[in-house]
Amino acid sequence: MTELSRHSGPQLCGLIAAIPVVGMFALHAGYRQGGASLMLRVLGGYLDGMAAKAAFLGALALAWALDAGTWAWPIALAA
Length: 79
Prior knowledge:
The chain is 85% helix and 0% strand. It is mostly helical. It is elongated.
């Protein structure tokens, strides 16, 4: 996770850190290797990832409620 945060965007890091076990090890290793500044980047990515998941799930639920059928998944991905 620490290496990934150096080479990728915060959204991907946040999505991966959302897995609790991975997140716990990422926080420990990242703080040990990169300090508080790196962990603030990971936390920012985590929050961005949460917003992206919420937008996806909200759009998916709305598309299903409006009976979009098989178009629900592409609509959610576009959100």
